[in-house]
């Protein structure tokens, strides 16, 4: 009789800490949903800003951090989504919520012709190409007289007040229509942020996530093992465009006024987003969360410094990149090993024993 040791292995991405954090995340979402009941309108508007910037940062991070596509033209989809919503309300008389959904669909369609152009470019040329597309979009919408041309326009009076759900919220909590509109936009932003983070996490843990990482690291090697780099990049580009379009529409429902320079602002919708991701930690899901909090604090602290504001942000960004090239969260993870949204696959095993009985034949 002999005893043979066997080792069974399995691949996991979840850790005990990440499982515990899931409970915390659910609690945070519940508190966030209830926030309008005990917070002021100004706080809700600040939270709306944080959530929408977080969504845009996660989209840019998906492109640059996980697919290796450094874009400086994401404002094209933000502005296109915003103008789609305005056109659906002003020209077609649709509910702004329907306009938000149309914005996502049309922004996704916009990625098809633009992707055909930019994916012929590599590296810095890709980045410049995305910026050129955004500028073409800005100049095109500036010629659309029905939506105010270069000076922009506002949503019709009562469009947001009559938006689906606003009246019900106002009657239920006894709020004014304007406050109910802010709360509805905030709840939509909260749901969009949670769905975006969950989707990206699921994507990165899937087989497609492995293919995306392979494409980012080495396209030729990825192609040799059966991964289609163009298909992976196109898919990620489409998803980022769709979510950015929805976010842009939602932002401008809350603003209720639009102009080409504001909707297609490279500073507001790309430069700040890049700052958030770089400060927090590119190539991680946690990084943009940390980065958007840091950005919001700096934005409030430096608000009185006028034109020095951008210069100080730039200096802070350079300092962080020198001290922590992988961002604040990357520095924290390197020293603690903590990951709240782990996507790396770990091989775990458990030892077992097997008894083998043998005999002699006479």
Number of domains: 1
Beta-strand residue percentage:
5-15%
Instruction: Report the span from N to C terminus.
Output: 17 Å
- Main sheet characteristics: 2 strands, antiparallel
What pattern of helices and strands is seen along the backbone?
A: EHHHHHEHHHHHEHHHHHE
Shape: globular
State the strand order across the main sheet: 1-4
| Low-confidence residue ranges | 351-362
Counted beta strands: 4
Show the helix and strand layout.
Elements: E1 2-12, H1 16-34, H2 41-67, H3 75-90, H4 96-118, H5 124-141, E2 153-154, H6 166-173, H7 177-205, H8 207-217, H9 219-224, H10 229-255, E3 257-258, H11 260-263, H12 266-280, H13 286-301, H14 308-323, H15 327-336, E4 346-356
Helix pairs in contact: 2-7, 2-10, 2-12, 2-13, 3-4, 3-5, 3-10, 4-10, 6-7, 7-8, 7-10, 12-13, 12-15, 13-15
Description:
The C terminus is likely disordered. The chain is 68% helix and 7% strand. A two-stranded antiparallel sheet has the order 1-4. The protein has 362 residues and is mainly alpha-helical. Helix 2 crosses helix 13 and helix 7 crosses helix 8. The relative contact order is 0.18.
Task: Name some characteristics of this structure.
362 residues; mainly alpha; ABC transporter involved in vitamin B12 uptake, BtuC; two-stranded antiparallel sheet; two-stranded antiparallel ribbon; globular; disordered C terminus
